[in-house]
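S.,

Sequence below, as promised.
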Amino acid sequence: MLTSLVVTFTPSAPAALPRDLGRAAHAVLLRQLGQQQPALAERLHNWQGPKPFTCSGVFGGARHEDQLLANPGDGLWLRYTALTAELSTALLAGPPPSHIDLAGTRMTVTGWTAEANAHARAANISYEALAAPYLLARERAERRITLRFVSPTAFKSHGQVVPLPLPASVFGGLIEKWNTYAPIALPPETKRFAEACLAISRYRLRTAVLRGKGSGDEIARISGFVGEVSYVATNPDRYWLGLINLLSDFAFFAGVGYQTTQGMGQVRRING
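The prediction came back faster than expected:
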């Protein structure tokens, strides 16, 4: 099961928070799960390998230098995604909390949904339903695919941060996550197809810095990129194009790159 849970909230008084709140959102998730399923929360905290969830930063409010400024009534929101049935069930189980503590600020929860008709970034779908249109050739496999990188995105390679959306990096990471959690395995050669047969045709990118641990001059800063990238397939093979299209849809849930549980790598496919 694949779930995108959107949580909407508002402060009870004017608030000035850190600009980047991916780590704070991660802490909210583990606290909430810890109250309901402490063993699951502990496993997620100590997870090795590709994580079965992502956490976004906070959307809404006003950014000023290193702060996010919010007032009562502002429609702030964040999202969590789950890549396993166990975690999807845990996210949607029981009544939502009335409040959350976000970076030391008490927020009133106004919504908690995975229903696509309730929020544009919410969703709940099985792996089989996501894959069927492409694996059963029910839907056209597009040769041109555009991804919008909503939050700072980067990759780790040989100990170095690589802030470039190269096809092998983007789709190689997606195929790894898919084959870790999906009940339907895809051929690892998909990464080779992406590397050899996908070209960047257009892009509109800019450098974006995510602020992490620490404070003042000691705060950690991670450079990434945000914006849009269009990939075009130089090989029109229907089978491989279907897999690339499927992974492009999967990116909405899986995230791209590293630190996707800390607010980085939020992605969505742009149609048309």
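The helical segments are 22-36, 38-45, 85-92, 127-135, 167-181, 190-197, 238-254.

Coffee later?
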